[in-house]
Amino acid sequence: MAKYLLLKHYRGAPAAVNDVPMDQWTPEEISAHVQYMNDFAARLEKTGEFVDGQALAPQGTWVRYDGEGRPPVTDGPFAETKDLIAGWMVIDVDSYDRAVELAGELSAAPGAGGRPIHEWLEVRPFLTAPPTITE
Amino acid sequence: MDEVLLRSLTPGVLAILVRRGADFAAAEDAVQDALVEALRVWAEDPPRDAKGWLVTVAWRKFLDATRADAARHRREDRVGEEPAPGPAPAVDDTLQLYFLCAHPSLTTASAVALTLRAVGGLTTRQIAEAYLVPEATMAQRISRAKRTLAGVRFDRPGDVATVLRVLYLVFNEGYSGDVDLAAEAIRLTRQLRASIDHPEAAGLLALMLLHHARRAARTAPDGSLVPLAEQDRGRWDTALIAEGVGILQAALARDRLGEYQAQAAIAALHADAPAAEETDWVQIVEWYDELVRLTDSPVVRLNRAVAVGEADGPRAGLAALAALDPSLPRHTAVAAYLHERDGDLVTAARLYAEAARQAPNLPERDHLTRRAARLNAGRRR
């Protein structure tokens, strides 16, 4: 088994096919979208492949160390749209192909007009524990 | 309370329930419930007859579950009275459990989880923690596996190779949590070897023991990996090595070579060298040739290239490597090492850095990054 992160972010990916911002959907379309995401997670739990899923608030604050005895420097919060991480799901699956298959299904979540968003998701493998036998 | 003793009783208890007529899936759930209860109450109030206690409690759990089920289905007549305890379970029952849990219809991950629970006696929570997934996910993975097995006969001989594969994975892949998966894999392989006379079961046990012997030397206090050549061999466990070598020799004498015996033979040759530079690489290459013949695995060919580099010099190793697909995992790391041995430090540093970016795990990545950094620092001086 291998863990993968399905990452929903807006950094460098081409625009989705059904690229209408969520605030211009109907309330029913939003409900249908949320229901799809919940059902997807529930289904993965049933198949024994679900690890975690979280959505993130768009406001991010930049923080860095500023030297001994000083409070950290902060910048923001910004509602940054160019570099937004909207959320993620972590899955534990038998193969890379299965991870891609599931990301494809997640990307089919309905948006405006009830049609799939075709959103680009990034699939990233987790680093694992080292194997004992290597020679 | 002795948790390992408790776990070792699991397959026997499960077999008794199945012999009394319980179906495997329901019996396995009942035994799991009994184990969880044992973990809860035995610390305060240990029973005199641990196995008898487990059988009684598991049977009661099974009847309760069946009654609840039957009530739902309005078929209460299905439930019989408690039968007399069956005859003492034969060793064969344990073997049948191994076969069932590693049934070829299961995915590897399901077979690993089910084996650890039904044969190993681990709780779902412990297995979930060992593989870093939520308990609910692991519970579903196990019940799904049991649904896949519905209808599979308990008394049919299974495939030893798939059982060995599952045990190998338990030993080799997992995280270090509360449960020591390597020790658990060794325990389960010992138990398997007691149930079946098969040279590869012995070979796998020997392989595990020989690698487990190096455990204390394998990581530095800061958690970083120590490569075989740099390990303090004084910290290798000589008792485990002696046991592993003894088991391996007896298996090899039967002249039915398999991949685990061949891998164990390589580990034994490393164990035999008092210092890295005294390693018998020529013999190790011969064993890799056997392994290539047995498995035809590209990963084995890659490891063989390393051994050739040690036996016949880095140029020979690089020539062996040139015949292999560069997209193989760790191909770049092996190339870096062979170039370093060949004195081409610029290429080696570049390849180590590239290998670090491709590394499948964090300790390996750190190790490769350090090697690149060391070569780069040496060149600046």
Structure description:
The complex is a heterodimer of chains A (135) and B (381). With 135 residues, chain A is an alpha+beta fold. Chain A has a single domain, classed as Dimeric alpha+beta barrel (Alpha-Beta Plaits, 2-Layer Sandwich). Chain A has helices at residues 27-46, 96-106; strands at residues 2-9, 50-55, 59-64, 73-79, 85-93, 122-125. In chain A, the strands form 2 sheets. Chain A has a 4-stranded antiparallel sheet, with helices on one face. A two-stranded antiparallel sheet of chain A has the order 3-4. In chain A, strand 3 and strand 4 (73-79) form a beta hairpin. The model of chain A has no long low-confidence stretch (mean pLDDT 89). Chain B is mainly α and 381 residues long. Chain B is built from 19 helices and no strands. In chain B, helix 15 (298-312) packs parallel to helix 17 (331-341). Mean pLDDT of chain B is 91; it is low at 78-84. The A-B interface holds A 1, 3, 45-52, 92, 94, 125, 127-135 and B 107-110, 113, 131-134, 136-138, 140-142, 144, 171-176, 182, 207, 211-212, 218, 225, 228, 263, 266-267, 270, 303, 306, 359-365.
* The CATH top-level class label of chain A: Alpha Beta
Give the full name of the CATH homologous superfamily of chain A: Dimeric alpha+beta barrel
CATH fold type of chain A: Alpha-Beta Plaits
Architecture (CATH level 2) name of chain A: 2-Layer Sandwich
Largest sheet of chain A: 4 strands, antiparallel
* H-E order of chain A: EHEEEEHE
Gross morphology of chain B = elongated
The portion of residues assigned to helices of chain B is 55-70%
Structural class of chain B: mainly alpha
Rounded to an integer in angstroms, the radius of gyration calculated over CA atoms of chain A is 18 Å
Number of strands of chain B: 0
How many structurally independent domains of chain A?
1
Q: What would you call the quaternary organization?
A: heterodimer
Largest interface: A-B, 22 and 42 residues
Low-confidence stretches of chain A: none
CA-based shape of chain A: flat
Estimated helix fraction of chain A? 10-25%
Structural class of chain A: alpha+beta
β-strand number of chain A: 6
Strand residue content of chain A: 25-35%
Radius of gyration of chain B: 24 Å
